[in-house]
Specification:
This protein has 338 residues and is of the alpha/beta class. It is built from eleven helices and twelve strands. The two termini are 33 Å apart.
Length: 338
């Protein structure tokens, strides 16, 4: 395992088991995750400590290209990994500070028809160090502190759960970034088994579900994962999750004109969220070449929102940022590769 994917106690044990003081592990962890540096020869480690890790891997993630919006302060980045694969990330500026969208895999195998990230399938999982590297590269480049992390870039976080948990726990460690769990959001297309495993961790993070349809027949058409984990099994997992943590769950709902914004959808959505602490986040469709559907008009979006609110559902419409610097996650990477 690379050094910057290791927990603090693992680094401390590494030095201790090699005859060095365990505090050298704390020094290294702080250097990697608090100072966000990888040039360990310039750290305060002793020569003896450096000799112990001389053959150990430290993974580097670098910003390959930056796209800056002319409409707002949003920045989209392509990150280059050591094997030359490219992944995407987004930095968003709000009144309360900076939020960053982080990728968890190179590509994605979930096959959602409206998503550009999945069109070339899965290439590989990211290591915790590569997820952390996205955050550190952005903070170092722009001299900022990212206050909120959203695992909603390319990839399905729960399909790479072990490394995602490492990423989250290292990010939370007080010797590192000391980021509150409550400032971290995991977005999943609905891997019920993964939701249960995440619930058992009892981490007070935020959970977002990419729902996008309200019945099995229609959801399976655009989200193949529904054939494995249908809405019944998804809801059972969410009830299990909420019973463990009592957190509100956000449902991401991409609006596709005439497909999922009907009165029937209102009724089905109300029924699906019954018994859950739920927030509905409406997302106007970002069209891509391979998905020949359209977003509803602004009026239709507002009308659908009002119908949900009339049914006493908590609803917002996602503010669209960086519209001029690529339409959706996955498109930057594919455009550059072409």
């Amino acid at each position: 395992m690379d050094l910057n994917s290791m927990y603090l106690d693992e680094l401390r044990e590494l030095f201790k088991s090699n005859g060095e003081k365990s505090f050298r592990g704390t020094q290294l962890f702080t250097f990697l995750h608090d100072k966000r540096r990888v040039d360990v020869l310039n750290s305060n480690l002793s020569l003896e400590a450096l000799d112990i890790i001389k053959n150990k891997k430290i993974t580097k993630t670098e910003i390959y290209k930056i796209f800056e919006s002319n409409l707002d302060d949003t920045k989209k980045m392509l990150f280059k990994l050591e094997d030359d694969n490219l992944i995407e990330g987004v930095l968003m500026k709000y009144k309360f500070g900076y939020s960053q969208c982080v990728s968890t895999q190179v590509g994605c195998k979930m096959g959602c028809s409206f998503c550009a990230s999945t069109k070339e399938g899965i290439i590989r999982d990211l290591k915790a160090s590569e997820m952390l590297g996205q955050v550190y590269a952005v903070e170092n480049k722009f001299d900022i502190k990212v206050g909120n992390i959203i695992l909603m870039g390319s990839g399905e976080p729960l399909d790479n759960l072990d490394e995602v948990l490492r990423f989250i726990k290292i990010l939370h460690d007080e010797k590192g970034q000391n980021l509150s769990y409550r400032n971290i959001t995991i977005s999943t297309c609905g891997l019920a088994d993964g939701i249960r495993k995440l619930a058992d961790e009892k981490l007070p993070i935020s959970l977002a579900i990419s729902l996008h349809q309200t019945n099995d027949k229609d959801r399976s058409k655009i989200m193949p994962i529904n054939k494995k984990y249908n809405l019944k099994s998804l809801k059972e997992a969410l009830l299990y999750y909420q019973n463990k943590l009592n957190n509100r769950i956000t449902f991401e709902y991409t609006l596709i004109d005439g497909q999922n914004n009907t009165d029937k959808n209102v009724k089905e959505l109300k029924e699906f969220t019954r018994g859950l602490k739920a927030h509905i986040n409406l997302i106007p469709l970002n069209p891509i070449e391979e998905f020949n559907e359209k977003r509803p008009s602004s009026k239709k979006i507002e009308d659908f929102k009002k119908k949900l609110e009339k049914e006493n559902m908590n609803v917002t419409i996602r503010r669209e940022l960086g519209q001029d610097i690529s339409a959706s996650c996955g498109q930057l990477r594919r455009r550059v590769k072409r």
